[in-house]
C-alpha cells in the first residue's frame, strides 16, 4: 500500500526522529498502517498509511479534528483492532499477525487503557475493579488484593477502596480507572480524552498524576486529547488529519500560554 | 514470541464472584430471568409430582379395594367361563407365582416351567398381534383381513392365499408396520393352529372346573354354597372341595373372600329393604330425588333421619295394608251368607318385619365407604392411567414451556449483553479472552437457572402437595413416593441447568465476539 502521501509522510517522520535528545528503545512502531471500514459497498479509509514511532517513556498527545482517524489510530496502536494493511509493532510484536487470544494477551500485559467515561464495572467496588484486571492476567486472588491496594494507595484512593463507582466522584472514578490501567504494570498507557468529563481542577490533578507516573515508572503515555494542559506536558504532539499524520511537534516547538486560557492558579 | 499460556485462565471461583456481583447489581433483570425459569420448572415439577402422588394415592386406594377384588375374582373363576379372547387377555396379564397363574397353567395342561414359558411366549405374541389388528380402522381391517375380528383373524390368515393377499395389501400401506422382526409374523401364523388348540384346551379345563363347582354347590350357585359353608363353619372343607374341582385359592385370600361374601349378603339384604314397595314409591316424594336402591343406600349412610324415615315408611305401609285388609275382610264377612265359610283375602305380609335400623345403618356406611373408594379408584385410574410415566400431552406441554423458557431467557440475556456492551468491551481491553467472556455469561445464566430451578421445583411441589392433600387428605401420605420426588427434584435441577445453559449460548456468543473498541464509544 505504498502511495505518494505515505512516502512523504515517512520522510517527515524520519527527519523528526534524529532530533530527539533522549534516545530510548522504540516501543511502538507503526509502518504504513492503513485501516478500511467496509459498510455494504462503501469503503471508508480511516487510516491511509501512517508511519510513526513511539519510544519508551515518552508522553505523546494525539490531536486532530473529529473524523480524522484519531480514534482509529489509537485503536490500532492499542491492539484493540488489527490494521487492514501495514505493520504495528508493539514491543517488537506484530499485532497484525496475532489471533484473538494473543491480542488479549497483549492488551492484558503490555497496555493499560483509560477511557473518557471511566468504564468501571458498576457492580464492583474500586478494589474489585482493579483486581479484575489482575485476575485476567492470571494473578492469584490474594496477591491481586494486596497489589491492588498498593496501586490504589498510589493514586490516592486507599481509604475508598470498598466504594462502588456510583459512590465516587468523577475524579475519583478516573483515579480508579488509572489504577486499573496500571494493574498489570503495562509499558504503555492509552488515554482516551481522559479529562473531557472532568472539571478544570480535577482534570489538572489527573494530568499531574499521569505525569508523575510517566516520570517515576517510565511508562509510555499516549493520549488523545484536546486539553491544552495535557499538550503542555507532552513530549511530542501528533496532529492527525484525513487519516495521515500531518505534523509532529516537539514540545519545545509549541507555544502554549496557559495564562491566557484562564486557569485559576 | 508470545506465550499466551503465561496468562492463566480466570479461576472458576473468581468467575462465580463476578457473576454473583453482576446478578445482584442488576437485580430486577436477573429476577425476570429467574422468574421465567421458576415458571417453567414449577410447571415441570407440578406435572411430575402430581403424577407420582396421584399414582401413589391410586395404589393406596387399589390396595384398599383389593379385598373386593379377591372376592370377585373368586366368584368369576368359580362361576363363569371366559371367552377365548378374554382368556388370552387373562393369561397375558398373569404373574408367575400367583395361584391364578397355577390355575390357568393347570387348565392348559402345562406341566413344566419350560412348557409354561413356551405357552406364554405364544400367547404374548398373539396378544401383541391382536392389539395390532384391533388398533386398525374399520376400512383397513376390511381391506387387510376382509373384516374378520378377534382371533378369527389368525384363523383366516392361516390360509396361504389369504396370507398372500394380506401381505400384498399391507405392503401398500406405507404408514402401517407389523410389530416384531420381519418374518416373525409368518412364523407366528404358521404356529397359530397349535396355539389355538392350547388355548381351547385351557378353556375346556376352565369350563370343566366351573361345571364341577356348579355341581358341588347346588342350585343356589357358588355364592350361596359358600355362605352356607361359612355359616356352618366348614369353609376349609368347602375350599378343599373347590380345589378338588380344579380351582386353587390362595389361603391368604380366603378371609377376604369370606368377608366379601358376608358383605355381599348384607348388602343384598339392605337393598331388598329399600326395594320394598312403601319405600320405593314414596322416596321421590319425600326426598325429592330419583330413587335408585344404591343411591338411597348411600344417602342413608350419614342420615339417621332417612333410616328412621325408611322404618317409618315400612311401618306406615304395614298399617295401610292392614287397614285395607281389615276393610276388605269386613266387607267380605258382611257379604258372606251365614253358615258359609268366607273367602278371606290372605293376611298381608309385613313390610317392616326384620328391618333393623342399626344393621341397616352399618351396611349403608360400609357401602358408602366402599363406593367412595371405588369412585376414587375409578377417578384416579382415569386420571393417572394404569401405567407409570408422563402422558404424551404432558410431555408436549412441558416441551412447549421449555421452548418458551429458553426463548425468554435468551431474550433477557441478550438485552443484558447489549446493555453492558461497554463493560464487556472494557473487560476485553483489560485482557479478557473471548472464551472467558462467553463462559462468564453462560455461568451467569446457569446460576440464575439453578436459583430459579430450586425455587420452581419447591414451589411446584408445594402447590401440588397442598392441592392434593386438600383432596385426598391422609391417603396421600400412606405411600408417599419419596424416591420419585427426589428423582423429580434431580430432574428439575438438571432441566433448569440445561435450559439456562442452552439459552445463554447465543447471548454469550454475541458477547464474546464484541469488539474491544466499543469501550471507546461515548453515549
Features:
heterodimer, A: Rossmann fold, six-stranded mixed sheet, four-stranded antiparallel sheet, 26% strand, globular, B: 523 residues
Could you walk me through the main structural features you see in this protein, from its secondary elements to its overall organization?
The complex is a heterodimer of chains A (265) and B (523). With 265 residues, chain A is α/β, with parallel strands linked by helices. Chain A has a single domain (4-252), classed as Rossmann fold. Helix content of chain A is 37%, strand content 26%. Chain A contains nine helices and ten strands. In chain A, β9 (236-241) and β10 form a beta hairpin. Chain A is globular, with a radius of gyration of 19 Å. The model of chain A is unreliable at 1-20 and 261-265 (pLDDT under 50). With 523 residues, chain B is mainly alpha-helical. Chain B has three domains: 10-64 and 390-520, no CATH class; 99-249, no CATH class; 268-384, no CATH class. Chain B is extended. Chain B starts with 11 loop residues before the first helix and ends in an 11-residue tail after the last helix. The A-B interface holds A 71, 74-75, 80-81, 93, 98, 100-102, 104-109, 113, 115-117, 119, 121-124, 128, 132-133, 135-138, 141, 180, 183-184, 192 and B 1-2, 4, 6-11, 13-14, 18, 21-22, 24-26, 422-423, 425-436, 515-517, 519-520, 522.
Quick description:
Chain A is an alpha/beta fold.
Amino acid at each position: 500500500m505504498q502511495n505518494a502521501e505515505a512516502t512523504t509522510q515517512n520522510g517527515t517522520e524520519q527527519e523528526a526522529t534524529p532530533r530527539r535528545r533522549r534516545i530510548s528503545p522504540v516501543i511502538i512502531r507503526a509502518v504504513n498502517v492503513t485501516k478500511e471500514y467496509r459498510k455494504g459497498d462503501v469503503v471508508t479509509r480511516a487510516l491511509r498509511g501512517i508511519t510513526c514511532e513511539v519510544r519508551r517513556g515518552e508522553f505523546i498527545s494525539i490531536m486532530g479534528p473529529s473524523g480524522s482517524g484519531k480514534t482509529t489510530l489509537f485503536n490500532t496502536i492499542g491492539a484493540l483492532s488489527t490494521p487492514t494493511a501495514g505493520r504495528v509493532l508493539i514491543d517488537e510484536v506484530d499485532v497484525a499477525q496475532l489471533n484473538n487470544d494473543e491480542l488479549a494477551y497483549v492488551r492484558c500485559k503490555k497496555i493499560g487503557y483509560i477511557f473518557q467515561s471511566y468504564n468501571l464495572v458498576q457492580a464492583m467496588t474500586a478494589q474489585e475493579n482493579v483486581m479484575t484486571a489482575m485476575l485476567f492476567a492470571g494473578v492469584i486472588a490474594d496477591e491481586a488484593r494486596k497489589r491492588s491496594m498498593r496501586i490504589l494507595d498510589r493514586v490516592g484512593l486507599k481509604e475508598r477502596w470498598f466504594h462502588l463507582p456510583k459512590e465516587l466522584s468523577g475524579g475519583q472514578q478516573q483515579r480508579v480507572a488509572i489504577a486499573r490501567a496500571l494493574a498489570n504494570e503495562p509499558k504503555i498507557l492509552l488515554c482516551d480524552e481522559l479529562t473531557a468529563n472532568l472539571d478544570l481542577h480535577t482534570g489538572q490533578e489527573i494530568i499531574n498524576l499521569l505525569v508523575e507516573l510517566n516520570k517515576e515508572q517510565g511508562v509510555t503515555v499516549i493520549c488523545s486529547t484536546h486539553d491544552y494542559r495535557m499538550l503542555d506536558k507532552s513530549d511530542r504532539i501528533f496532529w492527525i488529519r484525513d487519516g495521515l499524520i500531518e505534523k509532529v511537534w516537539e514540545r519545545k516547538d509549541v507555544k502554549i500560554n496557559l495564562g491566557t486560557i484562564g486557569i485559576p492558579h | 514470541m508470545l506465550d499466551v499460556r503465561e496468562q492463566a485462565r480466570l479461576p472458576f471461583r473468581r468467575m462465580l464472584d463476578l457473576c454473583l456481583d453482576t446478578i445482584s447489581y442488576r437485580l430486577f433483570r436477573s429476577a425476570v430471568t429467574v422468574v421465567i425459569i421458576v415458571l417453567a420448572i414449577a410447571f415441570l415439577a407440578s406435572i411430575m409430582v402430581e403424577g407420582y402422588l396421584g399414582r401413589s394415592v391410586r395404589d393406596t386406594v387399589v390396595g384398599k379395594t383389593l379385598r373386593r377384588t379377591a372376592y370377585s375374582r373368586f366368584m368369576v373363576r368359580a362361576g363363569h367361563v371366559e371367552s377365548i379372547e378374554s382368556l388370552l387377555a387373562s393369561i397375558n396379564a398373569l404373574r408367575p407365582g400367583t395361584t391364578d397363574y397355577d390355575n390357568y397353567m393347570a387348565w392348559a395342561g402345562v406341566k413344566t416351567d419350560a412348557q409354561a414359558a413356551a405357552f406364554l411366549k405364544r400367547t404374548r405374541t398373539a396378544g401383541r398381534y391382536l392389539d395390532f389388528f384391533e388398533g386398525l380402522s374399520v376400512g383397513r381391517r376390511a381391506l387387510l383381513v376382509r373384516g374378520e375380528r378377534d382371533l378369527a383373524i389368525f384363523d383366516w390368515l392361516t390360509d396361504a392365499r389369504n396370507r398372500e393377499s394380506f401381505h400384498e395389501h399391507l405392503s401398500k400401506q406405507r404408514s402401517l408396520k407389523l410389530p416384531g422382526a420381519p418374518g416373525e409374523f409368518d412364523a407366528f401364523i404358521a404356529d397359530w393352529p397349535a396355539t389355538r388348540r392350547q388355548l381351547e384346551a385351557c378353556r375346556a379345563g376352565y369350563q370343566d372346573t366351573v361345571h364341577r363347582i356348579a355341581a358341588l354347590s347346588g342350585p343356589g350357585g357358588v355364592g350361596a354354597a359358600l355362605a352356607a359353608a361359612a355359616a356352618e363353619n366348614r369353609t376349609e372343607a368347602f375350599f378343599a372341595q373347590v380345589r378338588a374341582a380344579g380351582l386353587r385359592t390362595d389361603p391368604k385370600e380366603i378371609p377376604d373372600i369370606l368377608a366379601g361374601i358376608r358383605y355381599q349378603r348384607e348388602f343384598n339384604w339392605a337393598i331388598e329393604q329399600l326395594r320394598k314397595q312403601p319405600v320405593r314409591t314414596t322416596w321421590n316424594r319425600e326426598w325429592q330425588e330419583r330413587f335408585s336402591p344404591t343411591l338411597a343406600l348411600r344417602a342413608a349412610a350419614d342420615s339417621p333421619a332417612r333410616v328412621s324415615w325408611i322404618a317409618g315408611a315400612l311401618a306406615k305401609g304395614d298399617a295401610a295394608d292392614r287397614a285395607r285388609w281389615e276393610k276388605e275382610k269386613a266387607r267380605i264377612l258382611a257379604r258372606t251368607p251365614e253358615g258359609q265359610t268366607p273367602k278371606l283375602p290372605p293376611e298381608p305380609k309385613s313390610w317392616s318385619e326384620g328391618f333393623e335400623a342399626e344393621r341397616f345403618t352399618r351396611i349403608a356406611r360400609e357401602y358408602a365407604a366402599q363406593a367412595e373408594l371405588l369412585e376414587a379408584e375409578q377417578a384416579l385410574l382415569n386420571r393417572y392411567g394404569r401405567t407409570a410415566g408422563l402422558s404424551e400431552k404432558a410431555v408436549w406441554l412441558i416441551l412447549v414451556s421449555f421452548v418458551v423458557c429458553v426463548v425468554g431467557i435468551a431474550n433477557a440475556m441478550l438485552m443484558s449483553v447489549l446493555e453492558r456492551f461497554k463493560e464487556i468491551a472494557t473487560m476485553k481491553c483489560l485482557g479478557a479472552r473471548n472464551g472467558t467472556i462467553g463462559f462468564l455469561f453462560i455461568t451467569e445464566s446457569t446460576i440464575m437457572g439453578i436459583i430459579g430451578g430450586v425455587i420452581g421445583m419447591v414451589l411446584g411441589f408445594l402447590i401440588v402437595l397442598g392441592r392434593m392433600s386438600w383432596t385426598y387428605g391422609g391417603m396421600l401420605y400412606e405411600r408417599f413416593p419419596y424416591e420419585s420426588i427426589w428423582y423429580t427434584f434431580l430432574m428439575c435441577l438438571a432441566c433448569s441447568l440445561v435450559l439456562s445453559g442452552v439459552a445463554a449460548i447465543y447471548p454469550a456468543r454475541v458477547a464474546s465476539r464484541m469488539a474491544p473498541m466499543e469501550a471507546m464509544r461515548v453515549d
